[in-house]
Design goal:
homodimer; Methane Monooxygenase Hydroxylase, Chain G, domain 1; 2 domains; mainly alpha
């Protein structure tokens, strides 16, 4: 009995460990850069500590070694932008706080030895209190939070570190040089050895989010009306892959990720196709518009449970333009994703977007024609709602189109076609600016003058046609 | 000319500074705890640094003082929970890494003086790499991220700090005692002097988010059908306050805040009405359901631009039950907010929720009756859509009701009524658990078996009636 119990608990143990190993493996497989990052950090720390360990004049680790290792541990982040942000913040804050600390010590020394500690205490108290409060200012919190922290630390250390100015200068010099060594090691390794660019991640995130929205819209018509799936969605196994119906949900929660990536991207030097002043803010605008579209899709999703049997005359007639509207909106988004992915301008007037708008008119006409006579109201209400939400989604897709056109101009995307009429399009692009310093969470909601954009872009396309 | 230019730039300067001061003032006014927090941090740092500054055996600042000040600067966070989290992480990580470091040193010393640095280097490299990788494991990232960082730091420092074990033990002892002093100062000040509880913040956030959703729903009917506002919304000035129409938007983006607050609340000791094992996870579930409701409201909001003139017979007839449905759903949410706020159980069967459901039936009946004969399709489509989305919102409100009933049971809220039939309600509360360790962002979407809940709770209320 006991041995059976033992062996079962042994197997339990084994299963747990295997499960753990599987999860670790999956983490590494999902993003192999994580493994590379781990080795990069280990390399940096080993390098810095070995320099201090092996140098000839070694007499136990001094302050120097401590600060260099500490800097590497704290500054080395996953992306190059984040590492640069922290490194720069640390360097400049140490410099500024060191200078202020020396000044404070000099000022206090004028009061005589008895009053000096009190003056220093008051100075530390006041400066720390105001610096801590400044961390609540949104702009500082966003970009210089770590710098203020280091400022507080260094100032307190320098002020408390001793009476004589000459000693302080030496200390400040030592600390700065070690921090420079540590920081430089981090920055060099993080930029030169398989760099992870936050900007590139943001770019890819926007593309993949566009694709997720597109996949939902492309598949939605087939799902809700129980049609066979669209041709271009290849179903491999017997059970069709329905993941495209839920993938869009991650778009709804990508705000925090997008903002931190854009923030880090701001610190990164130009690299590859991204120049130094790449319009990262425009990516945030596109993110806002995509989430807006996602909210409508979420509302739409509630109707997926109640599949419409295309039994009645009414639903049969509405079904076709609705499916077309949805799948064309999806294709337009895919086209946009492709153009962002390949750094090319989106086509001046998207075929899919036009087909989409035609389908909107068609839906309206069909509805108008079909609503005569007695109808089963419980059947038609959801269909009308779905059609109506789809029309809103088409409006969203149009605003995303305009925002990506703006992006392509700001970031100098390759223009595959001639850009004769291009400048006109932007009159419609009335996407109000995202206020940078605004703390409130409402800032996610760029006021989009949808109607203006819709009518303007229609006018333009009428002119073209 | 020049003086005019000078004075204008002087006024510009003055306006800028005044503007800056106004913004700072607003920051403090919005949350006075920010000012208190700044003074608390300043107090802690001044205390710790003065202890080292004034002690009799002062001979320049040693490692000790550095580590105590450093600990205070880095550990002191806005809420008591976050401070505890960082303090505990720092303490235990230092202990563990110190012990491992001593072990590593002993191990390496067995190989002889020549090979020792190489063995130590390899050990540092391996341990740092695996510790860094472990920071990507979601569970560790969520709760012990800072601990792992400190582990890496302390281990590298101890390993590099010297050959002899006796010296290392002394160093480890010194570092631990100073970290304890710094950490204890932080924790005592943050808990005893005007504490900011993350749990209380989370509780209040949920209440205020419920109220925001409720305000929108209460006012929506009046807005879209251009009715006079509901009686209970007092309009003070001539221009009516429309902020309730946009306030709900902050609910959509509160996921990150809720999660970090719940995470910090986990570390907090029992206080006030919150016991030690308060069900913080249930708050996250409610948050998910509220966002779901918010997404539907966002879809509804798109129709606010096109106000319906209650001109036609059709819209006049649908208007009344729709307005009732919306405002009753709002009142039900207000009631829930009130009950969470006052730590009392929600009423067994909410009057408002019942009126709400009756209004749903009424809308369906009215629509059925009105859809006969020729109608202006462009007018009725948006009305039908609005009614249909409102019905979805009522379903959301029901799920929120069930989730808050669960919360009230788990957190032992005061029960104002007898709870005879209460246990029945929970059979319908099929809110699937939020998977804790799941990294994917999709986790925000608790699968809610809406239909089950709806039908179950209807049954229950039928039994009661």
């Amino acid at each position: 009995m006991e041995s059976a119990h033992k062996s079962s608990s042994y197997f339990n143990m084994k299963a747990l460990i295997l499960n753990f190993i599987m999860r670790i493996k999956k983490l590494g497989k999902d993003d192999p850069r994580r493994i590379v990052h781990s080795f990069k950090v280990a390399l940096a720390i080993t390098l810095v500590s070995m320099v201090y360990y092996l140098r000839p004049l070694y007499k136990g680790i001094g302050d120097n070694g401590v600060w260099a290792i500490l800097t590497v541990v704290v500054v080395f982040e996953f992306s190059a932008g984040a590492t640069l942000c922290k490194g720069m913040n640390r360097g400049f804050a140490t410099l500024l706080a060191g200078a202020l600390g020396v000044g404070a010590n000099y000022l206090a020394s004028l009061f005589g030895t008895k009053v000096e500690p009190i003056v220093l205490g008051c100075l530390v108290f006041l400066l720390v209190a105001s610096a801590t409060f400044s961390r609540f200012i949104p702009h500082i919190k966003k970009r210089y939070d770590y710098g203020v922290l280091i400022f507080i630390l260094t100032f307190s250390l320098v002020v408390v570190s001793g009476y004589r100015v000459d000693k302080i200068l030496e200390l400040a010099h030592q600390r700065l040089s070690t921090i420079l060594i540590g920081g430089a090691t981090c920055i060099v390794i993080s930029i030169c050895v398989c760099p992870v660019w936050a900007g590139e991640d943001l770019h890819n995130l926007i593309v993949s989010n566009l694709e997720k929205l597109a996949s939902f819209l492309e598949g939605f018509g087939g799902e809700i009306f129980e049609l066979p799936l669209e041709e271009d969605i290849v179903v491999s196994s017997n059970e069709p892959d329905k993941s495209f119906l839920t993938a869009y949900k991650s778009v709804l929660n990508s705000k925090a990720t997008e903002e931190s990536l854009a923030n880090f991207a701001w610190w990164e030097p130009g690299h590859g196709k991204f120049r130094f002043s790449h319009p990262w803010k425009q990516y945030l605008k596109i993110g806002v518009l995509m989430r807006q579209c996602g909210y409508h899709i979420e509302a739409l999703n509630a109707y997926l449970d109640e599949k419409f049997q295309a039994s009645s005359e009414f639903s049969k007639r509405v079904q076709e333009p609705c499916t077309k509207m949805s799948s064309e909106a999806g294709k337009a988004l895919k086209e946009l994703a492709q153009s962002v992915k390949s750094f090319t301008s989106p086509p001046n007037c998207s075929m899919h977007l036009q087909t989409c708008k035609k389908a909107v008119d068609e839906v309206n006409t069909t509805l108008k024609a079909s609503m005569v006579g007695e109808l089963d109201v419980l059947e038609i209400i959801p269909i009308i709602t779905v059609a109506s939400i789809l029309i809103e989604i088409v409006k969203c897709v149009e605003t995303i189109f305009v925002a990506i056109e703006e992006l392509s101009e700001q970031a100098h995307f390759k223009d595959l076609l001639n850009d004769g009429e291009k400048s006109q399009v932007h009159h419609g692009g009335a996407v109000a600016s995202v206020d940078d310093d605004d703390e409130e969470e409402d800032k996610d909601f760029v006021k989009v003058i949808i109607h203006k954009i819709t009518s303007d872009s229609r006018k333009i396309e009428d002119n073209r046609g």
